[in-house]
């Protein structure tokens, strides 16, 4: 995901990246191998680096800048069982679930083997909402949780460690590709007459949609004050989400402006 931020970069197949990590670190995946050791050895191979983040203010700034943040945390087997039970509970809507410390530590009558044994996990931190809840992208597929994501209170993972992962350098070709993309986006937004709210599906002049001052990537609908919507999907900005209907020409704007967004 951090690699993909470099527009125009040719990405290796995930299985090749995984194989490279395992070849470099045969112990990883089999023991509680230190993630920083892996990152020190693997990230330079992909022209990436990382920075440990120790405070929320800095973490928010990285997220605001679109930097990928990795979060690692540890739970004991009892806490993991409570975690699984909570996300398997179909009586609560997935988009309403917010993991809390109380849920992780609640009474559990199950006979759990080695209840105090610690196991770690790593997830992508996609953003902090206005209530400072952490919103994570998990690696267990989109059928799990809220389309593969879950929300947690900030005190849920007291032993969590956060890392911002980004690219140090761009090749000249990557710089040229990015500048071309920015020009295409500017041209598109300059000529586009309207966009459509992704919730109520009503279209309006592009200048009528205001960005939320407190939360990056959220547009506020001019028709309904509470009808805001996200223009960021799993970290990556999706321009096609904004392309809607040209009110003046009565045509599908997506067909009119082909900037190669695939």
Topology record:
Elements: H1 14-24, H2 35-42, E1 48-53, H3 56-64, E2 68-76, H4 77-88, E3 98-99, H5 101-105, E4 118-128, E5 134-137, E6 149-152, E7 161-167, H6 172-191, E8 194-196, E9 203-205, E10 210-211, E11 218-220, E12 228-230, E13 232-233, E14 236-237, E15 245-246, E16 251-252, H7 253-256
Parallel strand pairs: 3-6
Antiparallel strand pairs: 1-7, 2-4, 2-7, 4-5, 5-6, 8-9, 10-11, 11-12, 13-14, 15-16
Structure description:
With 262 residues, this protein is α+β, with helices and mostly antiparallel strands. The protein has two domains: 3-167, Cathepsin B, Chain A; 192-256, no CATH class. Helices cover 26% and strands 25% of the residues. It has helices spanning 14-24, 35-42, 56-64, 77-88, 101-105, 172-191, 253-256; strands at 48-53, 68-76, 98-99, 118-128, 134-137, 149-152, 161-167, 194-196, 203-205, 210-211, 218-220, 228-230, 232-233, 236-237, 245-246, 251-252. A seven-stranded mixed β-sheet has the order 1-7-2-4-5-6-3. A three-stranded antiparallel β-sheet has the order 10-11-12, with no helix packed on it. It starts with 13 loop residues before the first helix and ends in a 6-residue tail after the last helix.
Notable traits:
262 residues; Cathepsin B, Chain A; alpha+beta; 3-stranded antiparallel β-sheet; disordered C terminus; 7-stranded mixed β-sheet
């Amino acid at each position: 995901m951090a690699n993909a931020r470099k527009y125009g970069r040719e990405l290796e197949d995930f299985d090749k990246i995984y194989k490279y990590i395992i070849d470099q670190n045969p112990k990883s995946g089999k023991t509680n191998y230190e993630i920083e050791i892996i990152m020190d050895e693997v990230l330079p191979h992909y022209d990436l680096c990382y920075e440990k983040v120790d405070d929320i203010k800095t973490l928010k700034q990285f997220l605001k800048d679109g930097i990928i943040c990795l979060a690692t945390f540890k739970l004991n087997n009892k806490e993991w069982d409570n975690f699984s039970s909570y996300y398997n509970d179909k009586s609560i809507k997935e988009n309403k679930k917010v993991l809390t410390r109380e849920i992780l530590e609640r009474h559990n009558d199950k006979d759990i083997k080695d209840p105090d044994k610690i196991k770690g996990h790593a997830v992508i931190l996609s953003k902090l909402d206005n209530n400072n809840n952490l919103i994570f992208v998990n690696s267990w597929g989109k059928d799990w949780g809220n389309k593969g994501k879950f929300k947690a209170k900030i005190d849920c993972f007291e032993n969590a460690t956060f890392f911002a992962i980004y690219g140090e350098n761009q090749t000249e070709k990557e710089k040229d590709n990015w500048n071309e993309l920015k020009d295409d986006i500017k041209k598109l937004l300059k000529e586009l007459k309207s966009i459509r709210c992704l919730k109520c599906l009503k279209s309006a002049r592009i200048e009528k949609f205001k960005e939320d001052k407190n939360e990056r990537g959220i547009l506020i609908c001019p028709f309904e004050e509470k009808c805001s919507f996200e223009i960021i999907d799993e970290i990556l900005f999706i321009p096609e989400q904004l392309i809607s209907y040209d009110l003046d020409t009565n045509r599908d704007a997506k067909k009119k402006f082909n900037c190669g967004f695939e």
